[in-house]
Amino acid sequence: MIVDSQKEIIEALKNPKLYPAKWNVKEVQVEQSHIAILFMAGDYVFKLKRAVLMTDVDLSTPQKRRLSCVQEMKRSTIYAPNLVLGVRSVRKLKNGRICIGGKAGEEVDTIIVMHRFQKNEILGNILPNQSFSRFEAMDLAEQLSELHSKAKTFRSKWGAQTVQNIILDTERVLGCFCPYIFERKKLDTLMKRLLKNVFIHSRLIDLRSKSGHVKKCHGELLLSNIAKKEGRYLFFSPIEYNDRSESIDTLYDLAYLLMDFEMRGMRKLANILFNHYLAYMNDVEGYPLLPLYQSIRAMTRAAICAKRTLILTGTERKEAIKKARRYFDYAYEFMTQYPPVLIACGGLSGSGKSRVAREIGGFFNPAPGAVILRDDIVKKQINGCPIDQHFDKAFDTPVIEKVVYDILRQEAKKALLSGCTVIVDALFYDESERQKIEELAHELKIPFVSLWMDAPFEIRLERVQSRKRNPSDVRTEEDLEKQLSLETGKVTWPKIITDKSRDETLHNALELLKKQCPKCVLNNI
User: Fold this and answer.
1) How far apart (Å, rounded) are the C-alpha atoms in residues 450 and 433?
2) CA triplet 161, 299, 123: central angle to 5 degrees?
3) Which of 3, 161, 197, 420 has its CA 20 to 30 A from that of 97?
4) φ, ψ dihedrals at 248, nearest 5°
């Protein structure tokens, strides 16, 4: 509910003459959200908080809006350094004129002053885009994992009851727009699935808080709130008005971003980002919660779009209704169950097994696709070695190797039991390890798909020598030649020769997948 139209202030901020002459502001562009209005004036942006009073947002008084502005400025120093220039008072002079800053007149509101991004610097404006590579998705995952690692931890501000309350609060909003925007029957079904999922995973949700995964997060990680400038990502407009929205599970923070990628048809990059983030955070344990968290995020966006229809007219209103329904459909889809599959990608270094695993990961439902467990990453994780640094070969022993494969199976089992597809990417040169991973699928009574990658030595050598940002430490001809002495035994797994193009290799892998598992539900990405 908007408790004050702020009409006089808004009209003043739209006027280019309000701003200092030295800024040479000829036009002011305006963008609006449900809780803020942005005024783009020259090289700067002025953000005015709306006077709203909602279940989770109270900006109903000038004092509360000022506090919110100050808090956002402080949080922006963490997520978007040097973006916010300061907080300025909006004042009304005796003659009735509105001005920014100074000491004359009555302080009637507050604005945040920020540097202005170019349109092509904001990811929400440019994606989907073919030029956005997997390396950029990896950069995004690394920066986000770094922020989450350093964020303040909370032990008692998140739990199953919190998640349930978010769902119920959002359902009440959506219910107000039935049947005009949403179908009541479909909303009821979604609610049953969400609440059942919370009940099933309540222990894990509560445990996340106790184990240090609940932190002071950004809270609204949409692509429209992320910019890339000078090679770094800036995560602007962090949530500052609601403790329940910022003191959250780190995966709940990530879920917003993954949901946005999915909405834009970018499942493959979302899967790469997701698995790279998990590798850095070593957080496969929390995966079962991701479909739930993504569904809640999409449901929340549906509610926000629905509420916007109350203040919009004409074409804008129709577009908001369309968007609300689309978010709702995605919330429903995230809560649709799919049978899990266990996939083993084997082959010697440079054979292309990791590339195949990466390429097929996004084809599996639910979003963002399969969890990819890789031997090189697990080996570094259990030895406390950062995945982007070289592993001390003195510790590369048969004992460590056995532990790695044991952990791969344990992690795969946990993820499979939660209902997600798992791809285990490892050498699998030992026949007994190939048997054990297959036995795991039989134990869980789920489909098993095996793929063995191979390529001529010269091609494998070229690949390992040109590796970029790869956790494998096999980089030289000597490293490859050592593998020639490995006893692989009889390899019965279907073989893919990866000396062809990337597209042809992917096609061959998908054809083998369909052949071994005809009932696999593959997403067309």
Assistant:
1) 12
2) 115
3) 3
4) -135, 170
Asked if residues 121 and 105 have their Cβ atoms less than 8 Å apart, the reply is no
Question: Which residue type, as a one-letter code, is found at position 109?
Answer: D
- The pLDDT assigned to 525 comes to 62
* Cβ atoms of residues 433 and 403 within 8 Å: no
| C-alpha R_g of the chain | 26
Q: In the predicted model, what is the mean pLDDT of residues 478-493?
A: 88
Output the 3-class SS for 425-437.
ECCCCCHHHHHHH
State the amino acid at position 348 in one-letter form.
L
User: The tokens of 225 are what?
Assistant: 């709130």
Burial 376-386 (b: 16+ CB within 10 A, else e): bbbbbbeeebe
Tell me, yes or no, if the pTM score tops 0.85: yes
Q: How far apart are CA 318 and CA 14, in angstroms?
A: 25
Which residue's structure tokens are 């701003």? Answer: 19
Tokens 């080996």 locate to 379
Record the tokens describing residue 369, joined without a space. Answer: 């696709």
**b/e for 85-106, b at 16 or more Cβ within 10 A?**
eebbbbbbeeeeebebeeeebe
Which SS3 state, helix, strand or coil, does residue 310 take?
coil
Residue 59 tokens, joined? 């900006």
User: Quick one: 313 exposed, middle or buried, by C-beta within 10 A (0-12, 13-18, 19+)?
Assistant: exposed
List of residues 6+ apart from 120 with CB closer than 8 A: 126
Q: Which residues pair with 114 in a beta bridge?
A: 45, 84
How far CA 416 is from CA of 182, 280, 333, 434, 516, in Å, comes to 33, 21, 19, 18, 18
The first and second tokens of residue 243, run together, are 């403790």
345 SS3 class: strand
Whole-number pLDDT of residue 272:
97
Assess contact for 345 and 216: CB atoms under 8 A.
Answer: no
- In the three-class reduction of DSSP (H, G, I as helix; E, B as strand; rest coil), residue 471 is classed as coil
Fold of 123-334: Aminoglycoside 3'-phosphotransferase; Chain: A, domain 2 (3.90.1200)
**3-class SS at 156?**
coil
Q: How far apart are CA 66 and CA 112, in angstroms?
A: 9
Contact 323, 305 (CB under 8 A): yes
Q: Which has the closest alpha carbon to 370: 486, 314, 252, 290?
A: 290
In the chain, the amino acid numbered 360 is I
Per-residue pLDDT tens for 178-192? 999 999 999 999 999
430 pLDDT band, cuts 50/70/90, is very high
- Give Cβ neighbours of residue 398 (< 8 Å, ≥ 6 apart): none
Written as six digits, the tokens of 60 are 């109903």
- What is the DSSP annotation of 197-252? HHHHTHHHHHHHHHTT-EEE--S---GGGEEEETTEEEE-S---S-HHHHEEEHHH
CATH class of 342-516: alpha beta
